[in-house]
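To: structure desk
From: M.T.
Subject: fold request, one chain
Message: Could you run this one when you get a chance? Sequence is below, nothing fancy, just the single chain.
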Amino acid sequence: MQPSARWLTATIVAIVIARGPHASAQPAPSEGQPQEDFRGLTPAEAEALDRRIKQTVREVGVVGSASVIELHGQVQGEAVVVSAVPHGGLVREGDLLVALDDSALRQDLLRQRKAVEEARAGVETAQAEVESGIGRTREELPVAELRLRVAELARSRYLDKGGELEIELASLDRDIALAERRLKAAEQADAPARPVPLARAKAQAELDAALAAKELLARHVRPHQTAVL
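Reply: Done. Structure tokens follow.
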């Protein structure tokens, strides 16, 4: 800083201190005239200091923002502007800049909330049904286990060795053997020239019936009972 500048600064501070609290009571001097109460200064110095204090710089231009933030709507579709701050208007932090019509969004929100409530109700109903089904299953499980055990025993009684099926087959084999012996005895007793007697026909019928019963048991009854049991 040059000596003259330091002197002017010191002089301004001294003047402010000298004027003290009465500075605001003094009337402002008219433009172009030096103040008369610059004590200790010559009129030329006071005029130069007054011009320095009242120096004003006027420029023409456009004030621009240092940073620009673009706001984009996050909702798809068209939006109707209800209100907006005028272009170039003054705003403060927290002021509402633009208000959009959100009636359609509110209706969609109500629909979505209703759908959520219905889904929750469906989930609660399904959970209640599951719990009820679990309860019924727990009650029916002993009965089902007993039925399974009965079925296993019935299958074993009918199909295993020494079971009902084997007994029936053995009985049919005995009937077949007896019918064959009767038929053979009837054939030996008959003369070749005579007609077939009643005893031979009866023996043949018994043999045919026994063979048919065994065929029915082996080919049809056994697989059916196996599937059932």
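Reply (cont.): Confidence is low (pLDDT under 50) at residues 1-35. Let me know if you need anything else for the meeting.
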